[in-house]
């Protein structure tokens, strides 16, 4: 089973949404993935994240904000994906073979639900592309801009 870790600063919004979306994509595409998210600090899952995810049938109700040390076997991931610049800078060096990717997304915190939806939809496109690449045996996109499914315009 392939293990994926998605990191952000507080594990309260982008990484939580990406975790749920990646799990959903893997399930839909028949790929056996173990997906976790964590932050460099733990806070709480933001209500707006849960709201916009529920709109598309992804439940974050059981999710909680956590740090890397709250994740099972934290040093054994095939892929570590950061979704904010702060987490990318603070991301630790992994002793095991790990492929790191950085897909920076705008922080929707403090914005309207439309902003939250836009970030959710961008995350969905990116992580579906990520999961499709894994399923097809292709290299995962190096960056957000390299993903064929995502338009950054």
TrEMBL record:
The keyword ATP-binding does not apply. Keywords: Arsenical resistance. SUPFAM superfamilies: Phosphotyrosine protein phosphatases I. It comes from the Bacteria. Coiled coil: none annotated. The keyword Nucleus does not apply. GO terms for biological process: response to arsenic-containing substance. Residues 2-133 form the Phosphotyrosine protein phosphatase I domain. It holds the Pfam family LMWPc. PANTHER family: ARSENATE REDUCTASE. This is Arsenate reductase. It comes from Deinococcus aquiradiocola.
